[in-house]
Amino acid sequence: MASGNSGRTSEKHGLFSMKRALRELGDRALDGRTSVAKALAEWKAELIDDLGGRQAISTQQTAIIDLAVKTKLMLDSVDAWLLTRSSIVDKRRRALLPIVRERQQLADAIARYMQVLGLERRSKPAIDLQSYVATRYGAEQPAHEASGATDESRLDGSDSGEANHAKAHEEDLGQ
Fold first, then answer.
1. What does the DSSP 8-state code read for residue 13?
2. What is the mean pLDDT of each run of 10 residues along the chain (175 residues)?
3. Residue 92 carries which DSSP code?
4. Model-level pTM?
5. Which residue blocks in 12-140 are alpha helix, DSSP H?
6. Residues 61, 51: contact at Cβ < 8 Å?
7. Which pLDDT value is given to residue 2?
């Protein structure tokens, strides 16, 4: 045993130092360059998409998502450490390692966050027709230009079927 450890082995799982780093550095602890940070960012984006997209979630939900992401980081780190162990049982004490109990608390916290956010997938709010047309064909472009018809083809009487279709579509829309 190392001196000054008060009976603990010199191996550490790093949970407490990770909690301290997250508390002190916040989101700066994960700067986005590591594979872990990229995986967490992807998981966060998937959570937001499952809740209907960024426009559909509230500030409160964003805060819960941030908590869930940080808790997932800690849980995944503890899981990785536990999987390197030959056993999760302290043979001298004939009991589970204390980190197993803390791991379960982290897993329970994520489950609570997910229940608060909702377990069902929500679709993104539908956009109205005018917004769709504006994003698809450009806000300034009239509908007959978007279909490929030109004013010249209408003037010389050689309207194609595509131009006729566009004209009929405009009439249906009431333009």
1. -
2. 48 62 56 81 94 93 95 92 90 91 96 94 84 82 52 48 53 51
3. T
4. 0.57
5. 15-25, 35-50, 59-84, 98-117, 129-137
6. yes
7. 45
Task: Tell me which residue of 67, 77, 81, 78 sits closest to 110, measured CA to CA.
Answer: 67
Q: Domain-by-domain residue ranges, the chain?
A: 15-117, 129-173
CA 126 to chain centre: 20
What pLDDT is stored for residue 14 in this prediction? 63
CA atoms within 13 A on the CB side of 67: 17
Could you identify the residue written with the tokens 């504006």? Answer: 134
For the chain, how many helices (H) and strands (E)? Answer: 8, 2
Q: What pLDDT is recorded for position 1?
A: 42
b/e string for 131-162 if b means 16 or more Cβ within 10 A? eebeeeeeeeeeebeebebeeeeeeeeeeeee
On the 0-12 / 13-18 / 19+ scale of CB atoms within 10 A, 68 is buried
